[in-house]
Amino acid sequence: TDPLRRASYGTRASTGDALQSSNRRSCMFTVVGVKARSSDKYFTRSSDLPMVDAYARISYHLDWIEESIWNVQPKETECGVDYKWDKLWHVAIFHRNITSNGFTFTCSGTLISAKHVVTTAGCVLNQTTGLPLPEDTFELKVGLERLSQPTAYAQTRYVSEVHVHPKSVAIGILVTSWPFRITQDVKPICLGLSKNSAIWNSDGEISGWETFETGSSQMIYVVAIVYQFLT
């Protein structure tokens, strides 16, 4: 979805974003297409939000996530609830820079449990070989509103397992080597059932970090309408 988003909203490195329903009970979607109605301007939280048409598909693969990844481990009972600022479940995913051995912001994901981050397969695969990237490639951060300005409640974790859906579905899961602390400022998103049709054709938000030429960044929000996309 990155090329579609870049064409609609301008250049920014963001993928695997969450789409949040307007009733604030959030579900995880796979965004498969985005069409902006107003693409000549950048929008931030403090400005008027543009309306876009977002063609999205709710994750039909919860069985794979539950059985293969969680292994029927108990999960947090509270999810998708904001207390201080939006997107408590938003995860910045950094890749190790081979030259400097530092980490560079590459894509984003969504916290679905204290140890599990869902993102696109493209974020976790080697684009040349098609194989999962090594675990030590990744650095994960939550609690960020601006990438360059960590908050007091920001947390950093590293990855112990990389999973990619076996049936060519563009879903990847990163398992952290140590759980994130679930606090008032960091919470997982809710994973809803695909049969829940209440969210279709309703308002939602697409969120991500916008990076400027100066190197600074900030989280942005775009209002969207959610459509069911069947394959």
TrEMBL record:
Checking Pfam families in the record gives: Trypsin
Entry keywords, A to Z = Hydrolase, Protease
Give all residue intervals belonging to the Peptidase S1 domain.
100-218
Q: A single Gene Ontology molecular function, please?
A: serine-type endopeptidase activity
Origin superkingdom: Eukaryota
Q: Where are the transmembrane segments?
A: none
GO terms for biological process?
Answer: proteolysis
Say which family it is in.
Belongs to the peptidase S1 family. CLIP subfamily.
Which protein is depicted? Answer: Putative trypsin-like serine protease
Source species of the chain: Aedes albopictus
Source taxonomy: Eukaryota, Metazoa, Ecdysozoa, Arthropoda, Hexapoda
